[in-house]
Amino acid sequence: MANIRDIAKMAGVSVTTVSRVINDHPYVSEEKRKAVIDVMRKVDYQVNRTAVSLSQGKSHLIGVVVPFVKHPYFGLLIEGIAKQAVENHYHFVLIQTNYEKEREQEALDMLKHKQIDGLIICSHRIELPTIEAYQQYGRIVVSENAAGNKSIDSVFVDHYQSFMDALAYLKHKGYKRIGYCIGRESGSNSYFRQLAYKEFLRQYPQKEFVFTENYYFEDGQKVMDEISELTEKPDALLVTSDVVAAGILTACKNAHMRVPKDMAIIGFDNQPIAKMMDITTFEIPIATMGERLFQHVLGKAINRHEELAINLIERGTV
Amino acid sequence: MANIRDIAKMAGVSVTTVSRVINDHPYVSEEKRKAVIDVMRKVDYQVNRTAVSLSQGKSHLIGVVVPFVKHPYFGLLIEGIAKQAVENHYHFVLIQTNYEKEREQEALDMLKHKQIDGLIICSHRIELPTIEAYQQYGRIVVSENAAGNKSIDSVFVDHYQSFMDALAYLKHKGYKRIGYCIGRESGSNSYFRQLAYKEFLRQYPQKEFVFTENYYFEDGQKVMDEISELTEKPDALLVTSDVVAAGILTACKNAHMRVPKDMAIIGFDNQPIAKMMDITTFEIPIATMGERLFQHVLGKAINRHEELAINLIERGTV
DNA sequence: TTAGATGGTGGAACGCGTTTCAGAGCAAGA
DNA sequence: TCTTGCTCTGAAACGCGTTCCACCATCTAA
User: Fold this and answer.
1) Alpha-carbon distance A132 to A122, whole Å?
2) What mean pLDDT is predicted for residues B179-206?
């Protein structure tokens, strides 16, 4: 494979001139430009991006850390990220962690080793202060409320407030035993939601109903199975993912329970499935969030921390 | 940031020795090895992977082309790919194409520009012969039947035969008007399925029912809406994705149709949702396919073309 | 006429780890 | 004693594009 020096020799110019032609630098005479282009065409010259990366000190690659891609939440987030990547002529390395710390560490090391220019962390187990230390090697952005943090950018929605709003809404509609379903118990978003729930329970005492480890449609059945074991059952559920909400709704129907009469359901995300199944949900602009995350990692954002608005979409499950 | 030469100077050795220490080469005296390690620790030395890539001529990065990540089929495929990537100390660049040729071209160019060492193409619009020409720049693997092709590896299932089997199964069960739902009309897999359907129709003439552009759960409703417009309706559907099958099943229930009495459904993939909703389905080892694709792209496969077995899982929708 | 752009060009250094090769020291086998 | 053959070490070349800097030629404004 020909390199820039070969081209220079064949075209009878210096490597600098070839480089200039490649990068559309103005100070090249038409004559030489043409000569270089002709040679490049003849030998089918292709720049070696690795060499460009080494020389420029950046890879034009962003790392994206997600626990799993299968989930529609992260799928949509990646969708937004991918869109911005295309627009900015970047590509991204996907790191699926399954919430294993080693995988997250790998991503941080890639940043340290200059394999990637920046890192978008969509969800993580390694503690934020540890992550912060890697900010010196490249920009890091997280999709959770990291406001107050100076070195890490963040794009997020207010999960505390949205939970509070949702709980108040259900209360107002007359539900007395409200529970919630969430994915993993730990993590920033879960923390804020739990905080809101605790606060709600403090204000309006009732039995606590929390169902964890719910990610997919089929987990809806699991939740209903757990509920059927309870003597005192919830009459409303806040479900932090529409697909799980859809699964719960389906399980309810299979068990001949009436929704919302016997069980009210509020989903989150406003995924297409929520519309199709007429599920009341909190719309979270996930794809936009992905896009904003990308803007941040490129340093194109004005504020370090950005909160996105979410709003309730009232449909038939409350 | 310190580089290998700085380390060498500080430790009083040559760069070669430092390189040897980094790469665990045996021919280094304990004394020097220790000296080098001490210095590396002191200055927090980190190898520059870009430099390694340039030097070795490979990036340890694989490109993965998918039309969209949101879909559980590709989600699972990526899951398998990610698993093998971890095991082989590789990472991958995800290229979401939305079936745009420019995106696919970008992926091919990355290979040409040595940004990636190989390419896994899960679905594509650019024709295979065009893709083939890029094989000279790195290994390319596709997840469709490319047998007979010398330069491109492939991992696939026999969609023709599975469709034939499914159609025969429905016929045997007494269904008379069998149709099918598919994602996009074009593409290799769709082609083989169409071929099988045509052949079936030739053997057992009936009205043709084909529903295209069905990818997600919510598209199930769309299919049922289309069917409700027909005067002559199908009594059985082959649905090339379990999530769509689940959506159709849900739409059927909402319309108070009995499944399988009024409408039989066979899904594909055997996703968890199929189990939960008791959907008869063809199990396709998607994650395994992802893993095999990765093996192939690393050149670790014995045969260029690999067919994976699939089998029918009989449940309640037929 | 002169100082100061502006256009055009190339040599050489730079980014940084790997690898080849030559050479030295030393021990085991012939 | 001589030849192999291993262990250990480092200089230098290599992979390849970018960029700094020096330099020449024109041309313009003072």
Assistant:
1) 15
2) 96
Where do the domains of chain B lie, and which CATH numbers do they carry? Answer: 4-47 (1.10.260.40), 59-157+287-309 (3.40.50.2300), 159-283 (3.40.50.2300)
pLDDT digits (tens, 9 = 90+) for A49-93: 999 999 999 999 999 999 999 999 999 999 999 999 999 999 999
Strand segments, DSSP code E, in chain B are 61-66, 91-96, 118-121, 139-142, 153-156, 178-181, 210-211, 236-239, 264-269, 281-283, 305-307, 311-313
Contact list in A for residue B59 (CB cut-off 8 A) is 50
A142's enclosing H/E stretch is strand A139-142
How far A258 CA sits from the closest chain B CA (Å)? Answer: 13
Summarised one tens digit per residue, pLDDT across range A97-127 is 999 999 999 999 999 999 999 999 999 999 9
pLDDT at B149 over 90: no
* Sheet architecture: strand order including A305-307: A305-307, A153-156, A139-142, A118-121, A61-66, A91-96, B91-96, B61-66, B118-121, B139-142, B153-156, B305-307
3-state DSSP helix/strand/coil % of chain B, to nearest 5: 45, 15, 40
Which runs of consecutive H residues, i.e. helices, occur in chain A? Answer: 4-11, 15-22, 30-43, 49-56, 72-87, 101-112, 128-132, 159-172, 188-203, 219-229, 242-254, 272-276, 286-297
Query: In this model, does residue B262 exceed pLDDT 90?
Result: yes
pLDDT in tens, B120-141: 999 999 999 999 999 999 999 9
Residue type, A65: V
Burial (CB < 10 A; 0-12, 13-18, 19+), residue A137, is: buried
DSSP A213-248: ---STTHHHHHHHHHHH-SS--SEEEESSHHHHHHH
- Classify residue A314 by its DSSP letter: -
Report DSSP state, residue B308. Answer: P
Q: In terms of CA atoms, which chain A residue is nearest residue B110? A: A49
Give the A window 267-296 contacts with B, CB below 8 Å: 272-273, 275-277
Question: Does the CB of A217 have a partner CB in chain B at under 8 Å?
Answer: yes
Tokens of A289: 């969030």
Residue-level pLDDT at A150? 83
Cβ atoms within 10 Å of B160's Cβ, excluding its own: 18
Residue type, A11: A
Task: Check: CB of residue B95 under 8 Å from CB of residue B117.
Answer: no
Please indicate if any CB of chain A lies within 8 Å of the CB of B18. Answer: no
